[in-house]
Amino acid sequence: MTVQASKSVAAVDKIDLDAPIFDPAAFRLGNEQAGIIARARELGQHVFAGRAAAYDREAKFPTENYRDLHRSGLLGIAIPRQHGGFGADYQTYALAAAEIGRYCGATALTWNMHVCSTLWSGPLADDLDMDATTRAEHERRRAVHYKRIVDHGAIYSQPFSEGGAAAAGGVAFGTEAKPVSGGWIVNGKKIFASLAGHADYYGVLCTEIVEGEKASRRNTLYLAIPAKTDGVSVVGDWDPLGMRGTVSRTLLFKDVFVPEDAALMPRGVYFQAAMRWPHMFLTLSPTYIGLAQAAYDFTVRYLRGEVPGTPPVKRRMYPTKQIAVAQMQIKLEQIKAIWFQAVTEACANPSKEQVLRAYAAQYSAMEGANELATLAIRTCGGQSMLKSLPLERIYRDSRCGSLMLPWTAELCLDRIGREALYETGETDD
Ligand SMILES: Cc1cc2nc3c(=O)[nH]c(=O)nc-3n(C[C@H](O)[C@H](O)[C@H](O)COP(=O)(O)OP(=O)(O)OC[C@H]3O[C@@H](n4cnc5c(N)ncnc54)[C@H](O)[C@@H]3O)c2cc1C
Q1: Looking at residue 226, what DSSP letter applies?
Q2: Number of continuous H segments (helices) and E segments (strands) in the chain
Q3: 208 pLDDT band (50/70/90 cuts)?
Q4: Is the C-beta atom of 161 inside 6 A of ligand 1?
Q5: Pick from 217, 76, 96: nearest CA to 152
Q6: Measured in angstroms, how far is the CA atom of residue 266 from the centroid of ligand 1?
Q7: Residue 426, exposed/middle/buried by CB under 10 A (0-12, 13-18, 19+)?
Q8: Separation of CA 376 and ligand 1 centre (Å)
Q9: 168 lines ligand 1 (CB under 6 A)
Q10: Residue 173 Cβ < 6 Å to ligand 1
Q11: Which of 285, 230, 223, 298 is nearest to 260 (CA)?
Q12: Which terminus of the chain is more exposed, N or C, with fewer CB under 10 A?
């Protein structure tokens, strides 16, 4: 069972720490990365877990958690060391995010939007082609973004969904950036914009208008638009089933002037990333690995009569409960194994097999987390789904995973089926 860490670790501050989801020795993690992941887990367990119910109940953004993420250095987890961050690579970030998701899904999911602004502009962009002048310019610009985060705790979001086919990757974004002297004028609308009204910068994906050309995905820009800029507004309400603390309201951009230095990636680099670094779209999944683990942890504790706030009634002696826990453990290990492999092999120009595995890992994490939460409720019984306990929130939060574009569960199935059966360029004509 993974619930309790060893006594020697727990003795440090007299609180029993949960064991890591991925044991550093078993999964061959380095000391430095294990340290970063442990920091995330401790913050999650000690601080975020206790606040999660209120954020969920009130559909309130976890502002206090973000202050703690800044204080602990985790706001800059993927920012290169020379810029004051932890310099975490993709795998380290993913494992740390899973630990946060275990204690507060909404914090982990929104932290993902924030971290992507540094991961995509950082280690990911370093793998992509740019000429020397463009790379130098990118280096200068990203240093400005990193400084805001490291020094001032600035929070970035990542609104790309628009309600049409663009977020699925099918067509160019409808939000448009018209070039003007010194920058662009941006117009458009983003739906489900997590952190709306709470981020300091919206990392907006939009299409640069090129005179005489049709809108093209090749001309996608990734711009950090300050939330307080004239013409930016947040509209609509937010009262969803799950992930309520993400506050994913609608963002409107009306004739918003955005200077050139706001580019988080140079022209053409986002499109290159989407083509050559597909694991960039797998970063929503760590949250749900954390939720899957949380559903399992809860079940074991509940059946052992150890959930705080519930009577110490043991239910573990019933064979049906033991079989259900065995099924959950097998499912969890299956999800963890494929997901760990996929986040470990994330790189530029992955093989076809690696891309198919990334889709399969996303599908497994997103669908699997909710399957585990469903099994947990069935196994623990009626009292376990009371609002006073975290399981029903885990269940609702986990329901949202398979809906996240561009890699929804349905789209992963579509792509796996098609790409397994057809080589590039093959048709049946
Ligand atoms: C809690 C939460 C937080 C979110 N946060 C963000 C955020 O921060 N930033 C952001 O950009 N978005 C965010 N989203 C939005 C999310 O990524 C999706 O864009 C959104 O859930 C899509 O909803 P829709 O009803 O518009 O989907 P639709 O586009 O109507 O799609 C409905 C379903 O049809 C399928 N589908 C869609 N397109 C295709 C296609 N081309 N081919 C085949 N099937 C297709 C998909 O399976 C999809 O689930 C968030 C969503 C949730 C629930």
Answers
A1: E
A2: 14, 7
A3: very high
A4: yes
A5: 76
A6: 26
A7: exposed
A8: 27
A9: yes
A10: no
A11: 223
A12: C
d(CA 335, CA 368): 7
Q: Which helix (H) or strand (E) holds 4?
A: none
Per DSSP, the residues of 247-311 read --EEEEEEEEEEEGGGBSS-TTHHHHHHHH-GGGGGTTHHHHHHHHHHHHHHHHHHHTT--TTS-
- At 303-354, the pLDDT tens digits run 999 999 899 999 999 999 999 999 999 999 999 999 999 999 999 999 999 9
Query: Are the C-beta atoms of 302 and 375 separated by less than 8 Å?
Result: no
- Residue 404 CA: which ligand 1 atom is closest? 17
What pLDDT shows up at residue 334?
98
378: how many CB neighbours lie within 10 A of its CB? 12
Residue type at 299 in one-letter notation: T
Q: Residue 301 has which token pair?
A: 């504790």
Whether 416 has a pLDDT exceeding 70, the answer reads yes
Q: Decide if 79 contacts 121 (C-beta within 8 A).
A: no
Å from CA of 251 to ligand 1 middle: 15
**Both tokens assigned to 324:** 């259900």
Rounded mean pLDDT, 169-176: 94
Residue that has been written with the tokens 């963002």 in this structure: 251
Does the predicted TM-score (pTM) go above 0.85?
A: yes
Report d(CA 35, CA 97) in Å as an integer.
13
* Cβ of residue 284 lying under 6 Å from some atom of ligand 1: no
Q: Which atom of ligand 1 is nearest to the CA of 400?
A: 53
Provide the residue type at 190 as one letter: K
The number of the ligand 1 atom at minimal distance from the alpha carbon of 161 is 11
Q: What does the block give as tokens for 328? A: 């959950």
Burial class of 129 by CB neighbour count within 10 A (0 to 12, 13 to 18, 19+):
exposed
Helical packing angle, 63-71 and 105-119, nearest 10°: 50
